[in-house]
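Aim 2, interim progress. The first record below pairs a target sequence with its structure tokens.
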Amino acid sequence: MKSKIGLNNFFKMKLKLHTKLILFNTIIIMLVALLLSAYSTSLIAKIVERYIGEKALAVSKVVSKNPYVIEKVKKEEGGGELQKYIEQLRKDVGAEFIVIGNENEIRLTHPDEWKIGKKMVGGDSWRALKYGESYISKAVGTLGPSIRGKTPVFDENNNIIGIVSVGFLIKDIRQIINKYATRIKLLVIELLIISTILSVILAKNVKKSIFNLEPVEIASLYNEKNTILESVHESIFALDKDGYFTTINKKGSEILGLPIKSIRGTHYSKYFICSEIEKALKAGEKFINIDLFIYNIPYLANIMPIKINEKLSGCVITLRSKDEFTVLAKQLSYFQEYTNMLRAQHHEFLNKLHTLNGFLSIGDYDTALKYINDEITNDVSFYNKITGTTSDKYLIALLIGKYNYANEKGIILDIDENSSLFNIPEHISINDLIIILGNLIDNAIEASLESKEKKVFISFYDYSNELIFEVTDTGKGIPQEIENHIFEKGVSNKQTKGRGIGLYQSYQLAKKYGGSISYKRYKNETVFTVILPKEVNK
């Protein structure tokens, strides 16, 4: 319990993560090294003791079977030649003592010659003398504590006539063990130094991988991230490099109709069909305001790749409801057309005031009055014609704006009085319709500037299951070299930079509803025809 509290206090210390990692790793490695050192020393001690004990036993067995030794033990002739022989053997094997005793444990040989003839001590010889066993024992003799190998000596009739005791002093064994222990300690010290260096390197790499932030800062950023994710109106999805969801905000889970936990870890292809996502994940491309459908509902998506150290690690997708933008676009389009209409009217009105001022200045009041009546009749006539063909205020605003813009450019813009469009299907965005017609009318006005007649004629019909729009101009038509590519992005018969967008945009919007745009050239006219199905394109 105390160690656990101490560990908690360690992590609560006001130290930097870098320092904590170094200290923690060093302490752990030190504890492991000390435990391994103690275990290794203990294991080596056991191995050395066992090895020396087996060596002592092996020597005692060899000596006990030596015929010369057996003969001397049988005759109980101690000292003398036997002493010299055994002492030389003791020195050769490195034993502390080789003692031979008779069946009564009376010494026949001993390193200290004055102890020959005296009884063996230690009390560990009885098993050999009584049962004829060979074994290893520990006992305290006249030379000190030792490990001994005991073997009985048998005569030719297999009778026990004596004993051989070979011993190594424990203090000498400990010196051997201490040599190994010293080496282990040096190795432990080296490991601690190396581990400390590696801990420093590891700590630096860990800090670098988390952008040198402290845990408190990371926690703060995490909370900030969650707050930001939930505060924005857009739906946000983060994918890893393989396309699996890692982060989703609440708005995103509402769009998919699933809890965040159920979405996280699943692949984006389960919900999105979007080739741009794959391009962002594989090639690092970014996409702004692209169309993305979820459950057949359109959204505007931004896709931004995520890079860490210049390596792709995923992407972020933000989604916004296209319906919201459609409403705003409708309003903006209406105000733009209304602004254009007012600007054109203002400009035209100034010109007419100047003309009227001229008539009045020269006193030609009849002509001035006729001029005023003609202008009122023309404007009222066009307005009545528009309102008699459609009731959509956005379309009316568009046509009035284009009418005034055409007048300003010296172009006669007229509408087929037989046109009729009072029920625009709900699935067709009026904003998209205005863009389609607006681009075609602008192109027609521009083309007619170069013609002698300078006329643009517009007609539209609600025919059976289709809406049909036609825009006719008196321009020179489409150049032959680009007529097969006129609906491609960037293709234009004008050399001005940034052209070639309008027809491409109108063509794409018509395709969106399963419709089409085509054109045909007559003698002195070019007719663009737009056909939009009234039923939803599935």
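The second target in this work package is listed in the same format:
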Amino acid sequence: MTDTQSGWQYLDYTNISVTAGEPFAITCEASRARPPVVLQWVTTKGLSAVHHNQSDVIQDGSYISRRTLIITPSRNDHGKILSCITSHPEQQKNIRRSISLNVHVLPASVLLFPTGGNQSQSIVIYVQEDSPTSITCKSIGSFPATELSFWLIVDAFERTPIIANVSRLPVDVTISIPCDMFEGAETNITCKTLNGYPAPLIHWYVGSRNLTDNSSLESSLNAANRYDAASTLTFIPTRFDHMKRLLCQAVQPTITSTVVSVKNSMVLNISNFPSATTISFQQQTLPVIGEDFTIECSYSPSSYPRSVQWRHEDIQVASESCTSTSSCTTTIPNPTKYKLMGDDRSTSLTIINLTAVDNGRYACDFLNKSGLWSADETIQVLSPVPPSRVFVSDTQSVWQYSNNANISVTSGEPYNIICGANRARPAVVLEWLIPEDVTVVHQDQSDDIRDGSYISRKTLTVTPSREDHGKILICIASHPELQKNIRRSVSLNVHVLPTSVLLFPTGGNESQSTVLYVQEDSLTSITCKSIGSFPATELSFWFIVDAFKSTPILANVSRLPVDVTICIPGDMFEGAETNITCRALIGYPAPLIHWYIGSRKLTDNSSLESSLNAADRYDAESILTIIPTRFDHRKRLLCQAVQPNITSTVVSVNKSMVLNISSQQRGAMSVMKQ
């Protein structure tokens, strides 16, 4: 386990210092596994926590898995335990890692006043020259006790510490237990305190029972001239101590304030006296016919010897008996139907290839020398259902695109595209197919349970280049209930921003000067030139009156059409006359439209109409009349919108499609647009 603030890796049951009211991110990580480990955080009731989704990154042929928990602790969360549980098919038992919260509370206020005087927040203290003055510094509301020191401020650049023997509570109190606690077995428990003055006393309690006489105490002076103290309690627990609170109290009798001690406590878990056993479903899966399904029986605390038995409608299907953590015997009468895994606090039963016969009540029986505990749950196996919808959208607009739609993206800028599938059981498997040389990052698929089915999403982050214009991205959705996979595709419409924009006298030097010299009452021709954009940039002139006002200057600027589309009214049949329409929008002046099949030019067989739109640009429409032959099948039909008076290297915008010519033998064929 690590935290994002320091990046440190913590040992098991380490104390992590956090500040009350401030968010703190803790990450559970598992490295070099195949397949990825499943990570799950277990938090204490009442703790404010936000669970993030697990990430699985491929590195050197294996997975690095991480799951982050963001907590916002309160003072009442001090000493609470957070546990991360890892499960993997190759582990005989789940691995559990835990940390304890050491919650710090900042002072509500700090007061400086004459000892015995009014405890106000005044910043002025009156003293008499050459006479001793006792001044008290008081911190209110912090936990643990604030470390106080006095400094004499000489000026804004210099201050001098005032050395004083200030009585103070220890900064921190920690309790450590070397191993699990067993009924009747002697256990040494250590309590340590740091930076007290003078050396503190340490008292021990279990519930209201004072056990200080059963402890030892040692103190040492540290480098800060403060005392560190360690006390060891020798303790033989009984079953009656189970779930009672163990308290370590560091006392500073020389302190005259109302707070004279610092405490830390923990709840005792005495093995061989377990609490009630619980059984729970895995949160990430649904019981679907044909799928594997896992239920988990958890018990606390761990104890040995013990045995766990699983029953389906009172028929034993699996059992496990353990004399220690490393010595367990598993019995599964039908190993092709059931699989058993567990750790020292839980056992999970996996039902392989669910069928309707697997409906019914499942019971978990937990037995140790203290008694028998049982819990049960009823499973209703669900029928598989194909997805109701498969779609492509983006995180920027959240639009759902129609199949084969164009998505406008900017060259060099990352863009997130999502493939989604709704209301399926089991979860749909989503896969992106990407052309070569397109820079993409594949995100892990997410499968969320909602109303008894799965909502699946798989995100692709694409960073396109100019060369990726027109390339097609395809998402394939596969599911056991689909006769064939569903494909949804989008085409990249890559926009390239201009590398520069120049404004200069027509025919003059094309420099990047910001000054143009013109003559009053004389016509001046000014050229605005955009370099390096794709498609052609729409240019307009504006006269800047001042910082708050600008006026557009109307000018007839030549430009290519924004979009070219081809429309066929229906299937195309060999020998049957067909009218195909090509539209080009927002060009200036009115563009020309040419037609080609392969290298054969067919423009003479077409008509052309243009109209001025509301933006004072031209929309053009051309209709090609064609009688296709079987030799035209699978050839490329090209519509080319040409702007001959544009002086840049790009003088046309094209749209093409592959012809599918139907005949009696082949039947109807679909049209593939590109």
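Confidence is low (pLDDT under 50) at residues 273-277, 665-674. This observation will shape the mutagenesis plan for the next reporting period.
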